[in-house]
Amino acid sequence: MPSTVVHAGFAILLAAGLLKGAFDRRALAILLVIVVLPEADTLVGPWMDGAHRALLHNLTIPIVAGVWLTWDTYLRGPDRSWLRGRWGDWGVRVAWVALFVHLFAHVLLDWAHLEGINVFYPIYDRFFRLEGELLVSSSEGFVQTFVEIQTDPETGERTTDAGAVGTTADTHVANPVELSDEPEPDDPILLPIAESGWQLYLALTGLFVLVARRFQDRREE
Amino acid sequence: MAPTLVNVAVGVLLGLALLGAAFDRRSILVVALAAAAPDLDAVASLAIEGATNALFHTLLLPGVAFVGLYWDTCYRERSWLGERYGWYGVRVAWVALAAYVVAGIGVDLFRPDGVNLLYPLHDRFYAVVGTFLLSSQDGIYLTFVERGEGLLWLTSPGTTADHHVASWVNPTPGTGLETGVERELHLVRTGWQLIVVSAATVALAVRLWEER
Questions:
Q1: Residue A159 — very low, low, confident or very high, per pLDDT cuts 50/70/90?
Q2: A193 with B132: Cβ contact below 8 A
Q3: What ipTM was assigned to the predicted interfaces of this complex?
Q4: For a FRET experiment, which of A148, A196, B55, B197 has its CA 20 to 30 Å from that of B190?
Q5: Alpha-carbon gap, residue A213 to A23, rounded angstroms
């Protein structure tokens, strides 16, 4: 995983733009928990093969949560919504932003890192990794390599490569709890903060937004 | 050079986060343009040797803008910007300046190509690249900071004389418009950039839809 610091930085950048009136300490604390929570699947790793990046890193959870949120906050009618009745408009806003942040700042960001995520676990057990580029070239025109479709010249068979890696049985994503597939007792515990420049950048940008928002609040008082 | 689309995406996210009540179509456009503006030095590099990631990526330009803006909005008794455009104008100006520095220059600084931070006073490209991790055996492992030959303790890929940052405007070292060379306009270079661009698109769409 890119470290929690990186997820949190990107999450703050996204949340500050979407929370509007609901931007307060309580909302930020809830979002921080939402950002950290999926990493709990590393703890299940020792008992279940390939649990990390599968159990809590998938699109199944956000889709189910999104369907429930739509039903509760839009389809049921404003008077009968459980969320609105309990926490008011603030709660509805924070819930939607939490879903957005979980999806973009955590799950999808991990999709583009190491062996990716197990996208539709547990319905369809396969890890996918997002890798590629998008460019306009003077000789080849529009090029995208995220999903590669190739046609075999002899058989005419088409193969699609969307970055499928493996299943929970044969894929292990390194994490601080289990560095490799079969961890040794004397393995070091590695806790990455930022593995490359862009990760440090996302973490620092989140910090910048927090500081800038405080300055703005102070000036308006 | 990072794709300009990524600069714009981060700029839009910053704009959504910081504009507050000043958010509307016009202000978010200004902020997005401010985030894209530093990349215009690629055009200048056709005339000036090594100007890409240097001429408009220098911190001196936003530094002067910061001093001017601070003097006008915080120090003077009657702010020119405030009288002309009101609270809205002051807020948009500050956020646009932040987008120029953080999204326009910042994104490029954290890539191996680097940014000529103090051009033209001190001509050297700097890049914040490396790893930062904590290990139970080796303690803190930090390679972002490095004591090199430059003024700042960062990795340096060179000076304007010997380091050329390729762009689709000027793909090869040197000045002048060339013909017959391969040009590539990158929209997204890696997976994480695609995620940042899609997050910015969705967030902007949601906010504009709410604004109707």
A1: confident
A2: yes
A3: 0.92
A4: B55
A5: 10
Question: How far apart are the CA of A52 and the nearest CA of chain B, in angstroms?
Answer: 20
Q: Are A178 and A42 in contact (CB under 8 A)?
A: yes
3-state secondary structure of B61: helix
User: In sequence order, what DSSP letters do the residues of A50-112 get, joined into one string?
Assistant: T-TTTSSSSSHHHHHHHHHHHIIIIIS-TTT-HHHHHHHHHHHHHHHHHHHHIIIIIIIHHHT
- Which residues from chain B sit within 8 angstroms of residue A10, using beta carbons? 196, 199
pLDDT one-digit tens code per residue, B106-160? 999 999 889 999 888 888 899 998 889 888 888 888 888 887 777 788 888 888 8
Query: A85 is written with which tokens?
Result: 């009745």
| Closest Cα in chain B to A12 | B17
Report the DSSP beta bridge partners of residue B184.
A137
Euclidean distance between CA atoms B89 and B62, whole angstroms: 17
Residue B184 host element (H or E): strand B184-188
Helix (H) or strand (E) holding B115: none
Q: Buried (b) or exposed (e) across B50-67, using 16+ Cβ within 10 A?
A: bbbbbbbbbbebbeebee
Its domain, for residue B47, covers: 4-211
Evaluated on CA atoms B42, B47, B48, B50, the torsion sign reads positive
Which residues of B fall within a CB distance of 8 Å from A111? 191, 195
Q: How far is CA B68 from CA A128, A203, B65, B73, B79, in A?
A: 50, 29, 5, 9, 11
Cα of B40 to nearest chain A Cα, Å: 18
| Cα of A97 to nearest chain B Cα, Å | 10
Q: How many domains does chain B have?
A: 1
Do the Cβ atoms of B185 and A135 come within 8 Å?
yes
